[in-house]
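S1.2 Input.
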Amino acid sequence: MRAIETLTTVEIPEGVEGMLDDRIITIKGEKGELTRDFSHAPIKIQLEGKTVTVQASWPRKKEAALVGTVCSHIQNMIKGVTNGFTYKLKIVFSHFPITVKIKEKTLTIENFTGERNPRTAKIMGDTKVIVKGDDVIVQGINLEDVSQTAANIQNATRIRRKDPRVFLDGIYVYEKHEGIQE
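S1.3 Output.
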C-alpha cells in the first residue's frame, strides 16, 4: 500500500539565507553561496520563511527515498556555507619517495612506485588543495566537490595487478570533518 504523501522539512539557521526559484535552490552563508538544481526530481519543494519543505504526493519507493535525499543535499549545502568541509589525505610510500604538485586544476603525482610517467587527479569545482609535508588537505564549501576531489586523488594512486596487502604505497583519506581549518 502506498503512502498518501511523504513530507520532510529542513530548518535554515540564523545567518544563512535561502532562495528558491522553481526547484533550483540557492543557499548563501558566511563562507559563500551554493546553488543546486532539483528540477529532475519528481518532488515538490517549498520555501516558507526559514523552512524548506520537500514533499512527494502518492510516492513510489524511489520517490519517497528521493525526498530524504534532497533534504540531505540541502542540509549539506547549509553546513557547507556555514562551516565548510575538510578531507585530509596521507602520502604513504616505502621505497620510492612520492612527489605531489598542484598545477591549475590538476594534482600531479610523480615517482609513484618508481614510475616514469606522472599520474594526475582532477580537482573539482572551487575546491582548495594544500600539500603540507606528507599530508594533502582538501577544503571547500561544496561537499560533493571536496569528496570527489579526495576520491580522485586516492584513486589516482590505486595499485593494479599487484597484491594490495604488500604494496601499500599511495595517497589515502584518513580524516574527514566539518569545518575549514588552516
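S1.4 Remarks. DSSP finds two helices and 13 strands in the chain.
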